[in-house]
Every structure is written in C-alpha cells, then in structure tokens.
Design goal:
Blueprint: E1 6-7, E2 10-13, E3 18-23, E4 39-45, E5 53-56, E6 63-65, E7 70-75, H1 77-81, E8 87-95, E9 101-112
Parallel strand pairs: 1-9, 2-9
Antiparallel strand pairs: 3-7, 4-5, 4-8, 6-7, 8-9
C-alpha cells in the first residue's frame, strides 16, 4: 500500500476525550484493508521543522488499527487538559506486521479552549 498522507486539520477540544478515525482502503479495489497486526505511531510538534515534541501518542492503544480498515487516534481528556499550547502540526504513521511504514495523515492541530462546567 502506498498513498500520500491525508492532509487534514486535527481539531481537539482541550479537556475532552477525543477519537478521530481515518479509513484505510486498498488502492486497487477500494475495499477496507484488514489492519490486524498493524500498529500506529504519531506525534504533535510545534511546527513542520520543529525538534520539540509537544505530544506523542503513548502506545498502540492510543492509535488503534482495526480489522475493519480504520485507524482510530485517541486523546484522553486528562492528556489534552495538561497541554499549554493551542497550535502545532501532527503526523500519524501506520506500521505493517513486516515493518513497512505508511504515512497516514498529517497537518495542523488546533486545540480549542476548555470550557469549565
């Protein structure tokens, strides 16, 4: 599977539990790919060339690759509540069981303020 990463804005509400899903399909058939055994990884940085990592998804449970062809990225409420920044850029990659790395999504991150209830 080779495809350019999906360029999209990732909007996260500070203090809310978030889950964002991307479908992964076969370039030949368009059918959902079975991602059993695949893993995901990702980071948010201050900018495209920035060295500083603002956030890194901590484990495979935070980036879930499903048998139904979805990659679901989770951010817990306590994680985003601790963020002191409101903009960055993210990159998400998935890794096949054989070690092939596939860029999935990248783009700007916008964090909206938390409304205290």
């Amino acid at each position: 599977m080779t495809a350019p990463p999906n360029e999209s804005i990732l909007r996260i509400r500070r203090g809310a539990t978030e889950a964002v899903a991307w479908p992964v399909t076969s370039p030949e058939s368009g059918d959902p790919l079975d991602l059993t055994g695949w893993t995901g990884r990702g980071q948010i940085r201050a900018g495209y060339q920035a060295v500083e990592v603002l956030f890194e998804w901590p484990d495979d449970a935070a980036i879930e690759c499903t048998a139904g062809g979805e990659v679901i990225v989770h951010v817990a409420a306590d994680q985003s509540s601790a963020w002191t920044w409101d903009r960055g850029v993210y990159g998400i990659e998935i890794v096949s069981p054989t070690g092939d790395v596939v860029p999935l999504a990248q783009g700007p991150v916008l964090v909206t303020p938390e409304v205290m209830v």
